[in-house]
Amino acid sequence: MEWNRLIYGTYRLPESYKDFKEIISICERKGIRWIDSAHMYNHQESERWIGRVKKEEGPRFKLKVATKCGKSYINGEPKIDLSEKTVFSQLNNSLKNLGVKKIDLLFLHDYDKNLNEVDLIKLIKSIRSTGRVKAIGLSNFPFDITKRMIEKKLVSVLQLKYGKSINYALYKSVCQKHGAALWLYRPFNKGKSIKKRGQAGAILKRILSENKDSKIIFGATKTSQIESFDY
Ligand SMILES: NC(=O)c1ccc[n+]([C@@H]2O[C@H](COP(=O)([O-])OP(=O)(O)OC[C@H]3O[C@@H](n4cnc5c(N)ncnc54)[C@H](OP(=O)(O)O)[C@@H]3O)[C@@H](O)[C@H]2O)c1
What we know:
9 helices; eight-stranded parallel barrel; binds NADP nicotinamide-adenine-dinucleotide phosphate; alpha/beta; 19% strand
């Protein structure tokens, strides 16, 4: 397994913090380098658990952490809001939750139709100017806008859902041309693909070999699930 191309995603958490910490330690041992989170995941608990492991592990904690802003649950429903007020309030929470002065990588979680391109550029520049973020990425943005943001060197990583509905070739070509990275998420379709097609490790290997220039963000809620990737 090419563990260095896998990223552990924290959209769903294991039942206990103890299991989470064990999963993180397995990830590190296997050679995973990144964890993916978001302000909205488990109402900030995912970020808090990452921050707790980081604090408990001290300098032994080597993983880089990506998180996302601009999406929240309002009355149980996900709502996209890339207004400066929301983004900066969430960014401050994420810094506190993760216990860091700078976030390794901050994604704008989703495309906000209410934000025009001029304001999107302004937002990205003002996030940068805080000095609190090492890199900025876009998640689930339409191709044309993504392309222009990459060409202007405003963002360096993209997150897209793995599956048939997206024309990766377009995104891949612009990423390759400008040295941006592509992360594909939800390889098991929330576990449904494993029930249908079998082994998780085989699914990951296939997706990795079909998408040589991308990383894959997977979810796992049990230590045994990660151990089973090597078969
Ligand atoms: N950018 C975005 O908008 C966005 C959206 C969604 C997700 N993501 C990222 O992508 C990550 C992955 O997505 P995901 O967790 O929704 O979906 P996923 O990776 O497709 O599926 C994860 C689920 O698959 C099951 N599973 C994993 N390994 C298994 C194994 N060896 N045997 C049996 N079942 C296994 C587990 O289900 P059970 O827990 O039921 O056992 C696990 O929770 C997220 O954590 C998040 O970081 C990003």
